[in-house]
Design brief:
This protein has helices spanning about 10-25, 55-65, 110-115, 150-155, 180-190, 235-245, 290-305, 325-330; strands spanning about 5-10, 30, 45, 50-55, 70-75, 75-85, 90-95, 120, 130, 135, 145-150, 200-205, 210, 265-270, 310-315, 335-340, 345, 355. The longest helix has 15 residues, at about 290-305. The N and C termini lie far apart (about 60 Å). The chain has about 350 residues and is an alpha/beta fold.
Length: about 350
């Protein structure tokens, strides 16, 4: 449809953009390169400055966009080429195989339980999060279907204990797998949704407009910045977000990755990767970190008022409506603000305690 629009990115911005356009009667293709829409917000605990539950806000919107007649969701899909022609855009997409029939899968989890191998979750690995080689993106995922890890499908996880990957005949030629435990579990449920022979698909669209809503991600720490790659208890604030999330790997318990004990003192270091030499870190202020840290200290105090919380900062950015009051709330809750930039972090090997 030449009057359709393509929204690239299925996070909170892409979802709202798609809904706004669809309500005007426009056909919308909403694509995301992961197995579910939702983006970063679906993994957060609370949103500032109201500290409302993130997924409680987003889940109804995800359901609505999934059931709107004018919106077609394409997950696990990447943009490969865009060409402008005759006032519209011709777009080439690649829909990567999930090795699951999305029409048949109901997200029952039987295949997940049957899978014998767990691996560190991409977002939560450092704080103890694990997932199976066949997994659901998160409990409220849309579409609510599982995905088989390609490394399992192609036999790369055999040594780790995976049940497939040692076949005499490749799965691209086989329609029934007698050894894959996920296939057996799915068949037992009467679904037959696991499709290990599924292949990637190329899709071609013609749209009038394209909205790029690719969202945000945290900048990876530059090497062993402040001990990140060296010490267990140095984590990013995205990982801390997952640590205090009731839907995260610790079910909301704020514990130390090193020994799983409750935390007594926490320091947040702002601008940690900003302005580093040799092209490392980021040359700009991300603007949101000050309020993220304020939110995390407030919620930490709500979990346990005795935890000592300190924020080291250079310049305070309280740029939005209600944000200055939010900062004041953190102060009133006993959060200590120190204007300064720690330059070194060391660890006591016996206790795993950190010194700044």
């Amino acid at each position: 449809m030449s009057d359709a629009i393509l929204v690239i990115g299925g996070g909170i911005a892409g979802i709202n953009c798609a809904m706004n356009a669809a309500k005007y009667g426009t056909k919308v293709y909403l694509i995301d390169d992961t197995a579910s829409i939702g983006g970063m917000m679906a993994r957060l605990d609370k949103t500032f400055p109201t500290n409302d539950c993130s997924i409680c806000i987003q889940a109804p919107q995800m359901f609505e966009v999934d059931n709107h007649e004018n919106i077609e969701i394409l997950t696990n899909t990447e943009v490969r080429k865009v060409k402008k022609a005759n006032g519209s855009f011709k777009v080439k997409l690649a829909k990567k195989a999930m090795y699951v029939d999305e029409e048949k899968c109901t997200g029952c989890g039987a295949c997940v339980e049957a899978c014998p191998v767990s691996v560190p979750d991409e977002m939560d690995g450092k704080i103890g999060g694990m997932r199976k080689l066949v997994s659901l993106a998160f409990p409220q995922a849309v579409p609510n279907v599982v995905k088989v890890d390609p490394s399992c499908r192609f036999g790369e996880m055999r040594e780790a204990g995976a049940c497939i990957g040692d076949c005499a005949v490749d799965c691209s030629q086989c329609r029934e797998c007698p050894i894959a435990l996920c296939v057996k579990a799915c068949e037992k449920e009467g679904k037959n949704a696991i499709m290990l022979w599924q292949s990637n698909k190329n899709l071609n669209l013609e749209v009038k407009s394209i909205v790029v809503a690719t969202g945000i991600k945290d900048a990876p720490p530059a090497g062993d910045l402040l001990g990140y790659d060296v010490y267990d208890n140095v984590i990013t604030n995205t990982q801390f977000e997952r640590l205090m999330n009731a839907g995260g790997p610790t079910i909301g318990e704020i514990i130390r990755p090193s020994d799983k004990k409750h935390v007594k003192k926490i320091a947040w270091i702002q601008c940690a990767g900003r302005g580093l030499a040799q092209g490392k870190g980021t040359p700009y202020c991300s603007k949101i970190c000050c309020m993220i840290s304020a939110k995390q200290t407030i919620i930490t105090k709500e979990h346990d008022a005795s935890v000592e919380t300190t924020i080291f900062y250079n310049d305070l950015k309280a740029y939005g409506k209600g944000f200055w009051d939010f900062y004041r709330k953190a102060n009133e809750n006993g959060v200590c603000y120190v204007r300064g930039r720690p330059y070194e972090v060391t660890e006591d090997p016996a206790t795993k305690n950190l010194t700044l």
